[in-house]
Amino acid sequence: MNHLELAVLGGGNMGRALIGGLLRQGVRPERMSVGERDPAAREALQREFGLTALTDNVAAVAHASVVVVAVKPQDVGAVLSPLARTLGGTRPLVLSVAAGVRIAALQSWCGPDVTVMRAMPNRPALVGAGVTGLYAPAPSRPEQVDLAEQILRAVGEVVRLDTEEALDVVTALSGSGPAYFFLLAELMARAGMELGLSAQTASTLSAATLHGAGLLAQSGSDLARLRAEVTSKGGTTEAAVRAFEAAGLGEIVTRAVQAAAARSRELAEQFQPA
Ligand SMILES: NC(=O)c1ccc[n+]([C@@H]2O[C@H](COP(=O)([O-])OP(=O)(O)OC[C@H]3O[C@@H](n4cnc5c(N)ncnc54)[C@H](OP(=O)(O)O)[C@@H]3O)[C@@H](O)[C@H]2O)c1
């Protein structure tokens, strides 16, 4: 990875998260360039990370062996189309993190000779604790897929996917997932307040429980076992879990994730090439 020449198009939240993660992993700032249209963002990238941030995306990708596309989905076509000639000459790996922008669209903008891949990170990537679904269509070379995975690992875990459709499910599960846990923590804090705790105490308890449970979930034990370990027979947790089950929580969660996946598919329709 240290020999990587990387260009990031879009130095916003996700672009910055990836850049910061890669720098922490030892990638040299002089091996990275960023194409970013916002002058304040360019200035901040140069000041904080010591790398070159350019207005000209052609210049940003000119020497890159990997181009990460981290602009908003609606901007991807406008960013990549003018680069087709350059990319066709240098043939870098183009790795897009843009939600809902399909491989077919990326390929049509980059040209047929460029290898394109898609990834779906999630918000905790911003603190290096993300999880990303990676889809590399055939015939991506194994070393290119390894490289994409290494880059994404700079901001957390990576799960490889066999189909592009699976990215809609990843979006619904881990992409939107942080909000589901925030919602549950919010509702728990509210219940604590209704039972007499102050807003501050209830919120601290809820957020710290979310954090601690997350750390335990990363310890390698499976989730059902972790739950069983805090659910003594006849105890308080069991009383709560019974109430969740009686209210049909399992079905509610399934419906919620299905709704998010369906919306992901719908949104993707908007980002196809004309
Ligand atoms: N943030 C997340 O948690 C998250 C999670 C999963 C996936 N993603 C994906 O990551 C991508 C970026 O999201 P983000 O939250 O990082 O967005 P963001 O903060 O808005 O960053 C995008 C940056 O790209 C710049 N940009 C737009 N058009 C450009 C162009 N033609 N040339 C150069 N720079 C350009 C934007 O400038 P302006 O502000 O001037 O438009 C902005 O600074 C999205 O496609 C999103 O689907 C994000």
CATH fold topology of the largest domain: Rossmann fold
Distance between the termini: 36 Å
* Total of helices: 13
The count of DSSP E runs of length 2 or more, i.e. the number of strands, is: 8
Number of domains: 2
Produce a short descriptive summary:
By secondary structure, the protein is α/β, with parallel strands linked by helices. The chain contains 13 helices and eight strands.
Q: Could you walk me through the main structural features you see in this protein, from its secondary elements to its overall organization?
A:
With 274 residues, the protein is of the alpha/beta class. An 8-stranded mixed sheet has the order 3-2-1-4-5-6-7-8. The mean pLDDT is 96. The two termini are 36 Å apart. The protein has 2 domains: 6-162, Rossmann fold, CATH 3.40.50.720; 177-267, Orthogonal Bundle (ProC C-terminal domain-like fold). The protein has 13 helices and 8 strands. The radius of gyration is 21 Å and the shape is elongated. The structure holds NADP nicotinamide-adenine-dinucleotide phosphate. NADP nicotinamide-adenine-dinucleotide phosphate binds at residues 9-15, 35-38, 41, 57, 70-73, 75, 78-79, 97-99, 121-123, 175.
